[in-house]
């Protein structure tokens, strides 16, 4: 269950001078990628997520007209806040502006990271159920050398212990606000919000980041961003299908699409027998060539007995993310005579979207009957069929 309120602060108060070495007069956050300003893409990425309560951009005092020109009209996008003289000071200004609302959680995002995948954002939010802070990271793959003078190697670092930090970095609002207020009273500049949380004694978790969620810093980064947006980085669309069936047994309700629906029976299975989520999970796994649900969660393994099927769905989504892909859309059809499904469809879409970190407009849930024919017509069980469309890097 996600918290009731999740606020997002997008830090856009810098001048972006390093990305303007090619002669551009526009700060990097207002320069276009694929015909749309970077900041506009970053803001829209969070507005597309149904679990985000509000989005606040922290901007430079000289950029009010540029920001207004983005032309946003969304009740969840709050008035921009003028930032400070450093990133740390700008984040504090954003936190102060949110203080009257007291959101449960806050996500702090660099404006110059327009490609943060929904799955990564969702993973950060989920980690905050157990930790006070969380951030996406990438394992460092290059050998890292330490030097005291920039000319001679002094030591080689153990890269197995090194991770590159990304955003959004998420926190429980009251705790990070308090930590930032304390940090503002000392003569030290912290490199990111996670470091402030660590300094304040908060537990900070790491979740898997994504290679495309890089920070646009120099002119050449715009060429990379254009390739990502344009889809000419050897991406391809793959389609997977899933099919599952479970019989009824005596009970008090069925789990379908992550929602428990009152009924005089339940579905029989090793886990919670959520036939809709099983079909969806198989469809996603099929699209990325990763077998089926039984390969990853064998019914012979007792640890999965009674397990919520959202666990299986999240695992499939994580595999897509780790492979550098993204889920484009999902479609599931549930076949049964009873219980009635239609009234529960919005809740199912919300659960599926939250589990995978994707917007609900990418999810279709439909229900039909078999006109009283066959075992579903005799109300002996439920069938679900699903398809998944996934964009993945080409393997060749």
Low-confidence stretches: none
Task: State the helical fraction.
Answer: 25-40%
Radius of gyration from the alpha-carbon trace, in angstroms: 23 Å
In quaternary terms, these chains amount to single chain
Task: Quote the CATH topology of the largest domain.
Answer: Spore Coat Polysaccharide Biosynthesis Protein SpsA, Chain A
Mean pLDDT: 90
Tell the overall outline. elongated
Q: Which second-level CATH architecture of the largest domain applies?
A: Alpha-Beta Complex
Q: How many domains would you count in the coordinates?
A: 2
CATH class of the largest domain: Alpha Beta
Class from secondary-structure proportions: alpha/beta
Straight-line N-to-C gap: 40 Å
Number-wise, the strands total 19
CATH superfamily of the largest domain: Spore Coat Polysaccharide Biosynthesis Protein SpsA, Chain A
The major β-sheet equals:
8 strands, mixed
- How many DSSP helices? 12
β-strand percent reads 25-35%
Organism: Devosia psychrophila
Domain 2-C-methyl-D-erythritol 2,4-cyclodiphosphate synthase: 238-390
GO molecular function, one term: 2-C-methyl-D-erythritol 2,4-cyclodiphosphate synthase activity
Cofactor: a divalent metal cation
